[in-house]
DNA sequence: ATCCTACAATGGACTTTGTCTAAGTCAAGG
DNA sequence: CCTTGACTTAGACAAAGTCCATTGTAGGAT
């Protein structure tokens, strides 16, 4: 986390209170907040922070490769700070809970050349869907 | 296609001009239109069709399992009429072109029990990203 | 320590995507 | 060919996100 701020400073990022707060809010495991959720939490620490700034900062963090944008949900994009370890997502279809997961094997290798239509394939995104233990017992 | 209309009638669907037009617009291979694109094309055949009807009809087709909703793009949902053959998607990061693809292997099987967090996993959605031949040569 | 200035933040208007509703229309069975 | 409940319509509304002109400030320069 402070590593993150360190790394960003080295890349010429101007360190403002707003950016620090956004970075802090995103810290943790299995964190997948929407922009609005990030904003709501940021406001608790820095009441005057604006929505536009949160969007800008998230966008910058994504461009810098420090945060991933995921669309596990069909509504808002979510922001995943776990950008340095490849992983996929497991989503509860009922409550929307999200966990980072690490499938065995490499799904990229599962796409035969005959199925590539001349594309240069560089990335694959996998979303598992199901029911979480909480929702199953309810 | 006319099979589709047939099947829907059998399920008690009232067959209106609007619904027929939406179904026609969705016909074909590698078709992945957004709701707005479906509306734009539907209007060419039936000028008075409203946006709400297109949304309603697409929603019904999805509920009936005749069309899939996919979010390969981070903006609008896309509608895929190829619902009866399991497949995944390959997307060009530049131009947004989408192809249906059939990876070997079963990605569901690649998620070990230890990575399931007690979830009952029922479905998996895979999106490959890359550059299409057109964009690569440009 | 203070000044400068380019970069960042603000808030409000705007856009896109999608949903809802009240009123009008029509497919299809009787 | 009448009736009726399902379907469609237009437009208001909502949620998520972008844009822009203005104001503020981090951090190097003095």
Description:
Chains A, B: It comes from Streptomyces maoxianensis. Chains A, B: InterPro entries: FUR, Fur_C, WH-like_DNA-bd_sf, WH_DNA-bd_sf. Chains A, B: Pfam families: FUR. Two copies of one chain form a homodimer. By secondary structure, chain A is of the alpha+beta class. Chain A folds into two domains: 2-80, Winged helix-like DNA-binding domain superfamily/Winged helix DNA-binding domain (Arc Repressor Mutant, subunit A), CATH 1.10.10.10; 88-137, Ferric-uptake regulator, C-terminal dimerisarion domain (Dna Ligase, domain 1, 2-Layer Sandwich). Helices cover 34% and strands 21% of the residues of chain A. Chain A is built from five helices and six strands, in the order H-H-E-H-H-E-E-E-E-E-H. Chain A has helices spanning 2-10, 17-25, 35-45, 51-63, 133-137; strands spanning 33-34, 68-70, 78-80, 88-92, 98-101, 120-131. In chain A, strands 1-3-2 form a three-stranded antiparallel sheet. In chain A, strands 5-4-6 form a three-stranded mixed sheet. In chain A, helix 3 crosses helix 4 (51-63). The longest helix of chain A is centred in the middle third of the chain and has 13 residues, at 51-63. The termini of chain A are far apart. The A-B interface holds A 69, 71, 74, 77, 90, 92-93, 99, 101-105, 107-108, 110-112, 115-133, 136 and B 69, 71, 74, 77, 90, 92-93, 99, 101-105, 107-108, 110-112, 115-133, 136. Strand 6 (120-131) of chain A pairs antiparallel with strand 6 of chain B, so a sheet runs across the interface. The structure holds a DNA duplex (30 and 30 nucleotides).
